[in-house]
Specification:
Distance between the termini: 16 Å
Shape: globular
Helix content: 40-55%
Number of strands: 5
Strand content: 5-15%
Structural class: alpha+beta
Bound molecules: adenosine-5'-triphosphate, magnesium ion
Strand order of the largest sheet: 1-2-5-4-3
Length: about 350
């Protein structure tokens, strides 16, 4: 079948069969959150030794999808009682705050080294958010994880995404399909040379669902850390309804939306306002802002704009350069032909 601009489009019957194969394969794997619970317990024991008032919260994919996928890392953030109580508060971004977070993570790294000498750990202070990275392998029970401190935004944005994905049974599958494709194509920032994190892809999925009115807007303010569990409950996945027909249609429509309907020149993917209402102009995400950032020594691009729902003035798609945008388009074109490489 041919689509716009004469491009080949996968036949929906083939897409449906491929999507069902993908889901069956996932369902045959272990997806429960027990391995994450085990790591959570070990991290909690170490945190307890550094500061017994701090609690490690889980966010990222385990919280968003309610399952633990092989190959996904686990994201932890240690929060103080004050952080939790003020669960809608904005995260501090000052150098002083970053210094305090690094200090805590350093003390934690010393305890972790002592208690789990086989774990491969690295404290990274120079990033936007200081983070303690622990690499999987036999030592860390096969699970890799990141620990940050005193930042609520990850817990809030994960709860927000979860509130969207639980509205529509196909949404979680779509998120998993898109993430896997983004990692295979190298577009995912977890791959060398990649540019959009899984978090960014998830916002893109939700923005698409909002545009199509397949989910209802969840007010960003409704996510309050004070009402969120430190270890989010497991949500088993189910075989898609209607023999995968709705999911197959949604998958192809997602690709089609970003290829032919979304207007990256003016539009911003945002979960803050009604879908379709946020423009680059409104946020001053312009060429001039890119130039100003360069003068400050930062490389920020406003070519593919994804507004962070909780972090002020942060483009989650900031690493999408003009060249990467071209690559993204090429991969989307190929995705239309191959149903996100499922038929490749
Ligand atoms: P994966 O299974 O690939 O680990 P994930 O769902 O855990 O996927 P990540 O991309 O690891 O998603 O994101 C985890 C958290 O890191 C997010 O909830 C968010 O708070 C933060 N984050 C990730 N990417 C960005 C970004 N580009 N800008 C700001 N924060 C980000
Ligand atoms: Mg993660
Ligand atoms: Mg991570």
């Amino acid at each position: 079948m041919k689509g716009k601009a004469g491009r080949s489009i996968a036949a929906i019957g083939d897409v449906r069969a491929a999507v069902l194969r993908f889901c069956a394969e996932q369902l045959s794997r272990r997806l429960d959150t027990k391995p994450v619970e085990d790591v959570h317990q070990k991290v909690s024991a170490c945190v307890q030794q550094v500061d017994p008032t701090m609690t490690p919260y889980i966010f990222g994919s385990t919280a968003v999808l309610g399952v633990h996928e092989q190959g996904s890392d686990v994201d932890f953030v240690c929060l103080s009682p004050a952080d939790v109580q003020d669960g809608k508060g904005a995260d501090a971004v000052s150098e002083v705050a970053k210094g305090l977070q690094s200090g805590f993570l350093f003390r934690l790294s010393e305890v972790v080294k002592r208690e789990h000498y086989l774990w491969d750990i690295e404290l990274v202070r120079r990033t936007r958010v200081p983070v303690l990275r622990v690499k999987g392998g036999l030592g860390a029970d096969g699970v890799s994880f990141d620990v940050t401190a005193n930042r609520r935004n990850g817990v809030r944005n994960s709860a927000l995404l979860r509130a969207y994905f639980t509205q529509c049974p196909e949404a979680r599958w779509l998120s998993m399909l898109v993430k896997q494709w983004s990692k295979k194509t190298g577009l995912n920032a977890s791959v060398d040379g990649g540019c959009i994190t899984s978090y960014g892809w998830n916002i893109m999925v939700v923005y698409y669902l909002l545009r199509r009115k397949l989910v209802k807007l969840v007010p960003v303010e409704s996510c309050d850390v004070a009402n969120i569990a430190p270890m989010p409950p497991y949500m088993p996945l189910e075989t898609p309804q209607q023999d995968g027909q709705a999911l197959a249609v949604m998958l192809m429509d997602f690709v089609n939306y970003y290829l032919d309907e979304f207007t990256p020149e003016t539009e911003v993917m945002s979960l803050t306002r009604a879908a379709g209402e946020t423009t680059k102009e409104m946020l001053s995400w312009t060429k001039q802002a890119e130039d100003m950032a360069r003068i400050r020594g930062e490389r920020i691009h406003y070519r593919w704009c994804i507004e962070d729902p909780y972090e002020f003035d942060l483009n989650v798609g900031r690493n999408v350069t003009p060249f990467k945008l071209m690559l993204l388009r090429k991969h989307l074109e190929r995705a239309q032909e191959t149903a996100l490489l499922l038929l490749a």
